[in-house]
Amino acid sequence: MRLSVLDQSIAVAGRPQDQSIRNTVALAKHCEALGYERFWVSEHHNHPTIVGTAPEIVIAAIAATTDRIRIGSAGIMLPHYAPFKVAEVFRVLDALAPGRIDMGLGRAPGSDGRTAFALNPAANERPEHFPADVRDLLAWVHGEPLVDRHPFAAVKAFPQTDTAPEVWILGSSDYGAQVAAIFGLPYCYAWFFSDGAGGERAIKIYKEKYRPSARHPEPRSGLCVWALAAETMEEAQYHFTSRALSRMNRDRGILVPLDTPEASAKGLEAYDQDRVERFRRDSFVGTGPEVAERIEALKNHVGVDEMAVVTWTHDEEVRRASYTHLARAMGFAPKA
User: Fold this and answer.
1) Is the pTM higher than 0.85?
2) Tell me: the pLDDT tens digits for 234-270?
3) How many domains does the chain have?
């Protein structure tokens, strides 16, 4: 099974935020050595928990330190930007790592409305233009003609080379699934964002409405799940405590850096314990084989082609070890 990584450059209590960015770059090299297929980085803004704000810059840094793994955005929040500029950025990235760049596109703001307006004063209008922006971006990134009578038909995105980024549509609703289907593009659903709510429906819609394209004659879909693997279930659940508190806080609109497991355990006392235990039970947490089995079962149940994993821990070494345990359980990394 193809397994990939999503990294969000999480802020951690007691650690400088610039270290989170450098840890993302280091993790990509680690995951390449383990045999992961892709390494994607996210875009969020004005978010005290997630400090990855410029995926295109992080992609370039990762490209300079890796050789094989595909690198991409999960995603570029297209309403913030002019499609032509995004095309230029990714043409340059593809020149740095030919044939290894993925351009994942999203429609959500990756933040609140005020921040979206700060990024682009026309942001309120841009989501309505998302399909047309995707259409134009595809033409520019592949060096193909724009639609007839397009006002920018004479404008070309450089550099033009023999390869081009692979374009994905990302989402957590039916809308992105339909856009991906209409353009004949691969689609990845953010299962972790809503604990899977609506995920099966989105994938079903994507497959039913899929229009074959020259580059993708068949639909190609994926899911991204949150997971944590360790030597034992007890160890995994201990470190998962930080994520559990972060999720409970998020649902109350509290966005703060990830705290230690000890501090998080105390913080969780303020929440409904039945809800906390359900969240622990339903999450992909355990030993490498246990987590791998659940990931594969979900892949087969929903019927997707690829899976990606995002992991948050307070201790960076625990996070790296989690990806190692999972890779070994999946069989694409050598046993210790």
Assistant:
1) yes
2) 999 999 999 999 999 999 999 999 999 999 999 999 9
3) 1
